[in-house]
Every structure is written in structure tokens, then in C-alpha cells.
Write a structure and sequence with these properties.
Elements (H helix, E strand, L loop, with lengths): L2 E8 L1 H5 L3 H10 L3 E8 L3 H7 L9 H8 L4 E9 L1 H9 L12 H5 L8 E3 L3 H11 L8
Bound molecules: adenosine-5'-diphosphate and magnesium ion (MG).
Adenosine-5'-diphosphate binds next to loops.
């Protein structure tokens, strides 16, 4: 049994449509516990740095614009195998390829406006959590 922490963002397309609770319900139903959560409007510098790994991709500039287009909800999720579990409940990057019942299948508007971010490895989860949260803000 491995209890992990992972990092999640409810993206601007979802907050705009008032879907924070609906997304959280999916996360909790999957057995993930929201142990930290705050609403924020990312600055361009924050979005650029957070998605720095994608800087060379053709969609990078648009992605930064999208992620700063409205408020987001930053979250730390706790659970058994939380990193993989969250990726499963999120669904595929492109909602057209996402499994039924997943957050992206039900809520995403497009491959870009796909409602949620989730860390793709335990190592990246640690880096991403530290980017936005102090340890004292995480209450397990
Ligand atoms: P994921 O969020 O599933 O881990 P990636 O890390 O590959 O996906 O991409 C980061 C984000 O960039 C995606 O969630 C999506 O918002 C955006 N994105 C990815 N691929 C594309 C694309 N081909 N066109 C537009 N936006 C994209
Ligand atoms: Mg990713």
C-alpha cells in the first residue's frame, strides 16, 4: 500500500462553467482526498514556468494564454497510488480519446481546454506541489 500525494489543477474552462464541485466529486469518488486547495489566477510567468517542459511545443503559447485566461483551482490530492489514480480519473489528454466516466470525457471542451491537469509521475508531483504550496498548507 503506497499512499502518495499528487498535484492537480482545475483549469479555467472548468471554473468558468462552475464545475469545481463536479470535478471534486469525481476525484473524491475515485478515492482521492483533497488535502490542499486554493483558487488562483495564474500570472503569465507562473504559467510559463509551470509548463516550461512544453516550451518547444507548437501549442505552448496558446496553452499559457489559456491557463491565464481565468481562475484555476490548485490542489494536492492524497491517496493510494494517487498519481496513477488521478491520471485514470482525468482521462486522456484529448477528450475524444478519453474513457467514459472520466473528467475529460464528461467535461473537457477540447484537447487544450481539457478541464484538469494532473502530475504524470511521483517526481513531477513533488516538484509541482512545491511550486504552488507550502508544506504547512497541506493538511492530510
Ligand atoms: P496532460 O495534461 O494529459 O499531461 P500534456 O502534458 O501532453 O498532457 O500537455 C499539457 C497540456 O497542454 C494539455 O493538458 C493540454 O491542455 C495542452 N495540450 C496538449 N497537447 C495539445 C495539443 N496538441 N494542442 C493544444 N493543446 C495541447
Ligand atoms: Mg502532462
Amino acid at each position: 500500500m503506497t499512499v502518495e500525494l499528487t498535484f492537480s489543477i482545475i483549469k479555467p474552462d472548468a471554473t468558468r462553467r462552475n464545475l469545481t464541485g463536479a470535478v471534486n466529486q469525481k476525484l473524491e469518488a475515485a478515492g482521492l482526498r483533497i488535502v490542499a486547495q486554493k483558487r488562483a489566477h495564474l500570472t503569465e510567468a507562473q504559467a510559463k514556468a509551470f509548463y516550461g517542459v512544453h516550451a518547444a511545443r507548437p501549442f505552448y503559447a496558446d496553452l499559457v494564454k489559456f491557463m491565464t485566461s481565468g481562475p484555476v483551482v490548485l490542489q494536492v490530492l492524497e491517496g493510494e497510488n494517487a498519481v496513477l489514480k488521478n491520471r485514470e480519473v482525468m482521462g486522456a489528454t484529448n477528450p475524444a480519446n478519453a474513457e467514459p466516466g472520466t473528467i475529460r470525457k464528461e467535461f473537457a471542451e477540447s484537447i487544450e481546454a481539457n478541464s484538469v491537469h494532473g502530475s504524470d509521475s511521483l517526481e513531477n508531483a513533488k516538484t509541482e506541489i512545491a511550486f504552488f504550496f507550502a508544506e504547512t498548507e497541506i493538511v492530510g
